[in-house]
Amino acid sequence: MTIPGRLGPALSVLKAERGRRDLGGALATLALLAAVAAAPWLVPVAALNDLGQAVLLGLFAIGFNIVFKYSGLLSFGHAAFFGVAAYAEALLLRAFPAVPVPLLILGAAAGAGLLGLLLGHVCVRRTGAYFSMTTLAVGAFLYTIAFKWHAVTGGTDGLDEFMPAALVLLPGWRLTNPSITEIYELSAAFLIPFTLATWLILEHTPFGNAVQLVRQNEERAAFLGYDTHRVKLTNYGLAAFVAGIAGALWAISNGFVSTDSIDLTLSTTVIIMAFIGGTAWFWGPLLGSAIYIFGSDRLSAVTQHWQLWMGLAFIALVLAFPRGIAGLASLLASRLVRPRDG
Amino acid sequence: MSHHLASLMVAGGLDALTYSSLAFLIASGLTVVFGMLGFLNVAHTSFYMLAGYIGFSIASRTGSFWLALLLAPPVTVALGLAAERLLFRRLYAAGHTPQLLLTIGLAYVIAETTKMIWGDDSLALAPPTGLGGHVVILGATLPVYHLFVIVITMALVGLLALLIGWTRLGMVVRAAAIHPQMVDALGFKLSAVHTFVFLVGLYLAAVAGVVMAPMLGIYPGMADDALVQSFIVVVAGGLGSLPGAFVVAGLLGLVQGFGSVFLSDYALYFPFVVLAGVLLVRPLGLFGRGGA
């Protein structure tokens, strides 16, 4: 079912590839987002805290995967944007407790997005391992600032006590001492529309087509007249913005921001999460984050050294199922629907 | 006053050389393996850390730093060989992403294993007897141990240069770096050459891990710290370039050595200043040749 594309064969190949995966992917997406939205009614309050972390890190991992899936670049320093937005959100809440929180979140995330556009100028020019190494260095630089600039970031102590007694959602709508459930709902209320909008932008707009075309054949895209550097840069900024939303919400849901939210460990954790879930599916990283959070929770109940087992499991996953859990699921599903169909 | 300045310069110069030596020992293996095999080993500095811990155990059991320096690197290299045979080999042709992911997983495993065996706290190792004191040169009081670090690095780099430049084995390695297919066609086992290069790189990093211990101690975050520094050396030095790594390690040492004397508050930022400076002048790194 190839749709004849007006922009040439490159686009119609894209669309044909897209068409085959559409139905199963759409059903899985609906199920996943419905689960995120309905979670407060489905899981006990005790598990909601973990789930809140999983959802926010999942949003962050989706941000990471926007660069990997759509531009083919593996960022090794994406915690920079998550962390900068988390610090910004804490400082904004402290400075403007009366301003509606959604505005502050958007402000903090926009700051992260702008930072992405700025730093992307250096990083996005490189590809492959060089991109990864450069982003790691940039991430380490921002970590160093957070670590050293005690007056603003609190250094190793971090920032706390920035949450106002009443969180202003809209003028006239306040949450006094918000509960875990309410904080979770706030996170979900951002995650669902913003990820859907990002998905639409990347899959169904001319900009998204341009991003995918640049990944598949940069030379061809350049000949077609695209400014390929600007396309990749814009996508990087978008990924930084999405990571920023997650970081800002992270500050609110923890009431505390420290160098943990900007360090190398977080940058690697988000890579692991994204690849556990599967990077070929837009929502895979969200799935991966949930598996990681609940898996590590279970493991840490059994052994203090859960990271060892997590590392071993991840190595096994990389060798056996490089496309992650979502890749495995879609493979199984296609076997079920069309057995022995090459 | 000028006398004071002279002693500061000497102290800064020695710090610079010590820091450069360690940076080069750690990063050279990473950049050469990356250049020859296109393999980016995130766990490279995990082996450096592992060597430090193994050295600590040997030194505290036997009471001899020298035995630690002699034995810990080969033990580390043997573990590295196991990792190469069991894991890395499967992915030499698979592209950067699976390599990066696999070695991230391995770095996790090594980090957690060292915590399991040696705990979360920083461990201190005393310098060997005779090297614990200070000497005074031009009014500057200098730790003898730092001089030892510089000497041992120079000796190793010299040996390596002899090995690569003047032996038959070195000739095959050099040829394999430029024309791998031709070397293969001539009947040499390319995979053995690669393994050899990989192990030599690990050996240098492992020596750095042991030698570092009396200066900065051994601590769980040392692999990450060294990884950031080594990536800066590789990126700023240029695609797999050993001379590039040498120059950048020297630059890092210079700003670190003199910077910590004059601007110690900002010392942590210096490596990034070097990276940004180099990339502004040469976007592909000092000795970069394409490779985007």
Care to count the β-strands of chain B? 2
Rounded Rg of chain A: 20 Å
What's the CATH first level of chain A?
Mainly Alpha
Radius of gyration of chain B: 19 Å
Largest beta-sheet characterization of chain A = 2 strands, antiparallel
Order of helices and strands of chain A: HHHHHHEEEHHHHEHHHH
Average pLDDT, all residues of chain B: 87
The CATH class of chain B is identified as Mainly Alpha
How many discrete domains of chain A?
1
CATH architecture of chain B: Orthogonal Bundle
| CATH architectural type of chain A | Orthogonal Bundle
CATH topology of chain B: ABC transporter involved in vitamin B12 uptake, BtuC
Enumerate the strands of the largest sheet of chain A in spatial order, edge to edge or round the barrel: 1-4
Computed structural class of chain A: mainly alpha
Give the chain pair forming the largest contact, with residue counts.
Answer: A-B, 36 and 38 residues
Per DSSP, what share of the residues of chain A sits in E-state strands of 2 or more residues?
under 5%
- Shape estimate of chain B: globular
Distance from first to last alpha carbon of chain B = 49 Å
Distance between the termini of chain A: 17 Å
What are the SSEs and their pairings?
The complex is a heterodimer of chains A (342) and B (292).
Chain A: H1 9-42, H2 45-71, H3 79-95, H4 101-123, H5 128-148, H6 150-153, E1 159-160, E2 166-170, E3 173-176, H7 180-204, H8 206-216, H9 218-223, H10 228-254, E4 256-257, H11 264-277, H12 284-302, H13 306-320, H14 324-337
Antiparallel strand pairs in A: 1-4, 2-3
Chain B: H1 2-37, H2 44-62, H3 65-86, H4 96-118, E1 134-137, E2 140-143, H5 144-166, H6 168-178, H7 180-185, H8 190-216, H9 222-237, H10 242-262, H11 270-281
Antiparallel strand pairs in B: 1-2
